[in-house]
Amino acid sequence: xxxxTAIIYPDEQTDWLVAECPEIGTASQGKTEAExxxxxxxxxxxxxxxxxxAHPKTAKVTSFExxxx
Length: 69
Description:
The protein has a single domain, classed as Double Stranded RNA Binding Domain (2-Layer Sandwich), CATH 3.30.160. 26% of the residues lie in helices and 20% in strands. The protein has 1 helix and 3 strands; from the N terminus they run βββα.
């Protein structure tokens, strides 16, 4: 069992949600958060089946501030 990170955000061009896994580099989408997460899990499982020697990168989710000019 492995625990990975899912980052979910709205696609600016559609009404879908994008889900990304930064440790593996996979992404998917769905109409709901639950659907996007299920699709991301499936995409990540398929990727890891195709590339069994792939090692997850370390990922840390944090925030930072920018000042606009």
